[in-house]
Amino acid sequence: MIRGDNADARLLILGDGPLRHDLLTLVDRLGLADVVFLAGSRVNPFPLIRSCGCFVMSSNHEGQPMVLLEAMALEKPIIATDIDGN
Description:
transferase; glycosyltransferase; two-stranded parallel ribbon; globular; glycosyltransferase activity; 2 domains; 33% helix; Glycos_transf_1; 4 strands; 4 helices
């Protein structure tokens, strides 16, 4: 949907986990390798978050996610799932 409105849109995914390989396979299968970037885990995510136009928190469950507070500190527009903690 976003790419339909903005052909320059890119998706940067920070973090790692057991589904990384599955996600890479999906990105490749959908032909999105040129617009989806998996940056892995970062000790300091601030430079990457700062470079983004908005921050998306798509978790199914969270406590109080520090990264959400970091995005707020960087004054990024936030799109988040409607769950406790977000």
